[in-house]
């Protein structure tokens, strides 16, 4: 199945058009849920969705919550992936319109809350706890408060399909529940150059998970998608792809010069003595932070890194071996301070 075919299902089931304050019939959501159940165990469908997700990751935006990789034109139905590290949870939150959620890889635990009682008592009142393994598809029709959590030791991936009306404030209760209010980033934080570092780290984590999934898929699109992962990946993920790959991927630049550029040209970096070592300090919205602390032998290299916004790794000074230069470059990429410049 293709994503396009699933989109046609929502059209055929006559889901309300975007801009109308109308909810679909419960039966329509149930039928859509059943077809999502077929789609989510089909790797062709998942690969199609991952292609859109990679486009989103290539866009370099900070993700807060679920960010749609695709929205059905005319209907506004949104598709997003959720990445859940071990122990990961978005915390308790409310859905105010229909949603369909599928576990694509690994598992999740979902705690639901009694919404009426929670609003009445002004505190969250637990209701049910569900375990959802890969392939499980749940849905919400009535407004609901829940809290998914990955209680396993591996990462989980989930697919979230939601109404354009989900998230709109309902008027059945005047005051929001304090437990559901989550502070976002301030404008100053969003605009700060260090936010690009956070975006780079997020992207590296997501791309690593996508690479693991794609490597295990036996579908025609997988090699091309894995090659797109390669171009976005951290050195650790690139090495992993290199080792498991039966042939070099497009974008594999192991023979090309290793050029690094700052993730954001406005990043402020400083070398700083740290005992008998040297630190690379970066300016963050909350003040300076030591991102790297390294032997004093790398003192000249750290000075160059703090000074130059783009440099060739093999030009790092201080009589460093090729392996030492590579190790520093790898750490710089993994921190998200620098990115490899593609040939
Ligand atoms: Fe949710």
The CATH superfamily of the largest domain is identified as Jelly Rolls
Level of helix content? Answer: 25-40%
| CATH architecture label of the largest domain | Sandwich
Pattern of helices and strands:
HHHEEEEEHEEEEHHHHEEEEHEHE
Estimated structural class = alpha+beta
Biggest sheet strand order reads 1-2-9-4-7
Largest sheet: 5 strands, antiparallel
Low-confidence runs of at least 5 consecutive residues: none
Gross morphology is globular
Which band does the percent of strand residues land in? Answer: 25-35%
Taking all residues together, what is the mean pLDDT? 92
Total strand segments? 15
Total of helices: 10
> In CATH's first tier, which class of the largest domain applies?
Mainly Beta
List all distinct small molecules, including ions and cofactors, that are bound in this structure. fe (ii) ion
Per the CATH scheme, the topology name of the largest domain is Jelly Rolls
Write down the domain tally.
Answer: 2
The CA-CA distance between the termini, in Å, is 35 Å
Radius of gyration: 23 Å
